[in-house]
Amino acid sequence: MLKSFGFKSFEPWIDEGYDAIEDPETRFLAAYAAFRQFYKTAWKRVREDRELRDVLCYNAEHAMLGLPRLYDETLDPKLCREIAGVFQDACLEDA
Fold first, then answer.
1. Which of 27, 58, 66, 75 lies at a CB distance of 3.0 to 4.6 Å from 71, suitable for a disulfide?
2. Mean pLDDT, residues 7-32
3. Helix-then-strand count for the chain, H and E
4. Model confidence band, residue 59 (pLDDT cutoffs 50, 70, 90)
5. With contact defined as beta carbons under 8 Å apart, do 18 and 31 qualify?
6. pLDDT at 30
7. In angstroms, rounded to a whole number, what is the distance separating the alpha carbons of residues 14 and 8?
8. How far apart are the first and last CA of the chain?
């Protein structure tokens, strides 16, 4: 699902074989185990691997800048317009 939102994959650093597991609980436990395994050596790997740093930076930037825009434009524009209207009304009341 995260890939469909524009995030980059952490494969080959994290074995994403858990994506093929159909049972949600089993899939979550397998994903959690894969992330824990990666985390054991993550800081050393991040310092040494420019490509991994690039993926981390891209995903962080995308989460902060791209995902809100994607959500606003495609996932739920009506809700975003309603929220924006509430904030606009609140700001006008304060003015």
1. 75
2. 91
3. 5, 0
4. confident
5. yes
6. 94
7. 12
8. 42
DSSP 14: S
What SS3 class is residue 6? coil
Q: Which two tokens stand for residue 63?
A: 């989460």
Place of tokens 């995260």: 2
Show the CA angle centred on residue 70, arms to residues 67 and 76, nearest 5°.
115
69-78 long-range contacts, CB within 8 A, separation 24+: 70/5, 70/6
What residue ranges do the domains of the chain occupy?
3-94
Residue with tokens 């959690």: 32
Over residues 25-48, mean pLDDT:
88
| Per-residue confidence (pLDDT) for residue 84, from 0 to 100 | 73
